[in-house]
Amino acid sequence: MDTSTVILQIAAILIIARIFGEIAVRFSAPAVIGELIAGVILGPTLFNIIQPDGMIRILAEIGIILLLFQIGLETNIQNLAASGRKSVIVAIGGFIIPFVACYALSYYWFGLSQLVSLLIAGTMTATSIGITMRSLKDIGQEQSKEGQIVLGAAVLDDIFGVLLLAVLFDFSQNGEVNLVSTARILLFMTVFFLIAPTIAKFLSLLIRKHERVTKLPGLVPTTIVSLVLFLAWLSHAIGIPELLGGFATGLALSRRFFIPFGMSLKADSEFSDKIHNQMKPIIQLFTPIFFVTVGLSLDLSSIDWTSTFFWYFSISLTAVAIVSKMGGAMLIKENFARRVVTGMAMVPRGEVGLIFAELGRSTGLLNNEIYATVVIVIAYTTLFTPFWLKLFYKRFGKYMDD
Amino acid sequence: MDTSTVILQIAAILIIARIFGEIAVRFSAPAVIGELIAGVILGPTLFNIIQPDGMIRILAEIGIILLLFQIGLETNIQNLAASGRKSVIVAIGGFIIPFVACYALSYYWFGLSQLVSLLIAGTMTATSIGITMRSLKDIGQEQSKEGQIVLGAAVLDDIFGVLLLAVLFDFSQNGEVNLVSTARILLFMTVFFLIAPTIAKFLSLLIRKHERVTKLPGLVPTTIVSLVLFLAWLSHAIGIPELLGGFATGLALSRRFFIPFGMSLKADSEFSDKIHNQMKPIIQLFTPIFFVTVGLSLDLSSIDWTSTFFWYFSISLTAVAIVSKMGGAMLIKENFARRVVTGMAMVPRGEVGLIFAELGRSTGLLNNEIYATVVIVIAYTTLFTPFWLKLFYKRFGKYMDD
Q1: b vs e for A82-99, b when ≥16 Cβ sit within 10 Å of the residue's Cβ?
Q2: How many angstroms separate the CA atoms of B245 and B193, rounded?
Q3: Which segments within A33-87 are labelled E, that is strand?
Q4: Which residues of chain A have a CB within 8 Å of the CB of B3?
Q5: What is the C-alpha to C-alpha distance for residues B79 and B148, in angstroms, rounded to an integer?
Q6: What confidence tier does B267 reach under pLDDT thresholds 50, 70, 90?
Q7: In chain B, is it the N or the C terminus that has fewer CB atoms within a 10 Å radius of its CB?
């Protein structure tokens, strides 16, 4: 595509995301909803001005990697570890319950085939770490107790999602599950999460050391972005979503992170501030492109709104998808309001759900009608959850004090 | 191309540009030379790891647009206007003299055809505004008296270049020059340079106004980048290089700029500072990608280093290209040292020269041998001028005090 067209598209995405973000805020909704709707409007659903492909998709990917980097950077690893057990429960519960419930609905109630039902169930296990954390960020709750539980759970959910996707892909291709390859992915992931932050920390110390002597401006933006993108690439090469590479890097560069053999290398809070301040505008620039692209990908144009099956299936699947996802969060020991918020935050399926749905469509397993249903469920959970979440905090936030 | 490959390429470009930039600084050379050499090494000349196309080219284009935006932003328009007459002389002299001299060399001395000679002459009229301004920036001279003369001259040279390119293209296609279309381009340009800064100023006032009330973070990075890219696109649509749109926007947002009907709207220096500070990391991130891409585009791999003609022609063309370009600067009334520096700064042909050369190759007018010669002359003027410039300042900078 022509360079100048892409440049115009980027300009358009940035300004329209901003305008709709501002409108959302004006209506007391989180800004992310505005950005998603901007995407829906610009995309194939309505005006079809911009397609979510090529350059735009790459910039969007960089956007979500950088956002997860920022979330990692701002995470207090002690808090994250403290909520670890609860995160595991929320992640496992929020994975198994929707899977079983949505499978049962598709297979037993709607009489779909086993493989199609498995794929729908898989799609509904997803949690969009991007939408979830951004929604919490928009209302300033990403560092709260429930925010940390959700963050941990969403990261784990992404890992489960990768495993499930691999299993379902095997199953759809060969009719059986290859346990060896699944175990290998799991092993790679464990190794990655042990090693990646250490690499990132080590390289960041090199950068910091160099920062004291360099006379050439622009060290932080170029080297830190390079580091984040390198680890994102590395995680992808191992089979983990790129954004988790960004998260691992952020975690490694956060103030409280230390590596076992480098305990004497105290966190340098001046350098941390520099990273924060200089990365912020870059992250703010790229992030909206991601959320607009999620909106662009929610192609609602192919939906046959007159189909009874579509309405019947999509409404029931939406209900089951939401209730079952919240069920996972009900298993932890917290006050009721916090359990509800935790569950709600896990509801958006976002771009992760779309990856599953896309697998179903590209392999021909999901026909147009079922694909459309799945997309509308993803769209509903993605577009409305941030709003409900904000509303819930406003009305019931006081019950979470303890 | 695969998203994750592009992400790795970006990471590689950023870090290698940085490393070579640091090495250049260590050897007392301007950092831009390191970035250009990083490109030569990564590109088809040596390792052929990265091609200057697709996504990388777009990011590079954004990089040079943003750099010109920054240069515009930091320009004091009164100073630029004050050096206006001298800039015009340097631009016209530095356009006509190389054109005539290089044409004469190619046509009369080397007996090349008229059209080929015209194209070579056209290539040698180019001035790389990017390399030129970056070299001055690297040695902290972009705001000096000669820096302002060079900036004005380089902008004018870019405009002349567009006109000449249009004329040569017409001539190579139809054997004649279409004066009407040339006049139309000239008219468009004049209108653009009158209107674009006014549009940019007006929109920036809207952004500033909004900035006071918004609760959504990230206003400056998204809206200012959007504005810059929009005006870059607009300038391209009119037929002007995109980077001049970036420059016009920067100029409009600079502290000293005012629009006739908005004289009461005083420059808001707090908002100016915000733009400066928040745009800086973004500009620092994108700029090296541009210079690496120029290096990538300097494909020296096809050169037959054993050809006598190649050596004979390239050495004489380099000499003529440098001397004739400096001739333009000799016409102004300044002390000798300043005239030399002004002339030297205009020498790099960079990416602008490559556009001409590419036109010649793609239309089949320049055969491989002549194309290679032109590329090596561009490479020499681009890679070595920043070094000579820095050296000259160090040795003779004192003679420029007045």
Answers
A1: ebeebbebbbbbbbebbb
A2: 9
A3: none
A4: 57-58, 61, 242
A5: 7
A6: low
A7: C
Q: Which residues of B touch A18 (CB under 8 A)?
A: 216, 219, 222-223, 226
Residue B59, token pair as written in the block: 């990011």
Residues A52-74 have pLDDT tens digits of 878 899 999 999 899 889 888 88
B143-168 pLDDT, tens digit per residue, is 888 888 888 888 888 888 878 877 87
- Which has more confidence, B115 or A361? B115
Arithmetic mean of pLDDT, B326-350: 88
Task: Dig out the tokens for A200 from the structure.
Answer: 């990132």
Q: What is residue B259's predicted lDDT score, i.e. its pLDDT?
A: 57
To the nearest whole angstrom, how far is the Cα of A274 from the nearest Cα of chain B?
A: 11
Spatial contact of B350 and B109, defined as CB atoms under 8 Å apart: no
Decide if B8 and A233 are in contact by the 8 Å CB cutoff: yes
Q: Domain segments of chain B: what residues?
A: 3-400
Q: What pLDDT was estimated at residue B386? A: 86
The CATH fold of domain B3-400: Na+/H+ antiporter like fold (1.20.1530)
Whole-angstrom Cα distance, residue B110 to residue B121? 13
CB contact under 8 A, A7 and B233: yes
Tell me the per-residue pLDDT of A239-288, one tens digit each, with 9 for 90 and over. Answer: 788 888 898 898 888 876 765 555 445 556 778 888 999 999 999 999 99
Closest residue by Cα to residue A328 from A347, A300, A352, A306: A347
Looking at residue B266, what is its pLDDT? Answer: 56
The tokens describing B240, both together, are 């002007």
List, in sequence order, the alpha helices (H) in A75-144: 77-82, 84-104, 114-125, 129-138
Q: Which residues contact A324 (CB under 8 A, 6 or more apart)?
A: A97, A98, A100, A101, A102, A124
Closest CB to B216 among A21, A215, A236:
A21
- Range in A200-204, B8-12, B301-305, B378-382 the model is least confident about: B301-305
Helices marked H in A106-241: 114-125, 129-138, 145-174, 179-211, 219-238
Asked whether the beta carbons of B192 and B248 are under 8 A apart, the reply is yes
Mean pLDDT of all residues belonging to chain A: 86
Q: Token pair for residue B130?
A: 């990017």
Per-residue b or e along B157-189, where b marks 16 or more CB atoms closer than 10 Å to that residue's CB? bbbbbbbbbbbbbbbbeeeeeeeeebeebeeeb
CB B144 within 8 A of CB B117: no
